[in-house]
Hints:
The protein is α+β, with helices and mostly antiparallel strands. The chain is 27% helix and 22% strand. It is built from two helices and three strands. It has a three-stranded antiparallel β-sheet with strand order 1-2-3.
Amino acid sequence: MSHPPNEIKVKIADEILTGRYANTLLVAHTAEEFVLDFILSLPPQPVCNARVIIHPGHLKRVIAALQQNLALYEAQHGAVAATPDPGPGSIGFVN
Length: 95
């Protein structure tokens, strides 16, 4: 069976296959990398479900891929409204 030229077959470990829900994202960076902490913010205490460390150039490609996929999603399902801004300092961007 042949695959399209850019297709990569990826094995997903069973413990990752079910996925994790995150409703908060903390972003930090150095000159060499970005750190993305995906957090489930529920009482009694928020929990970091996943940490992804990524090169700035690759992050730029990820952002482009997310924008492209959101545009495709909205073309099929309608516009997505951003959730209300919770106010300064509460979105989770850290330098």
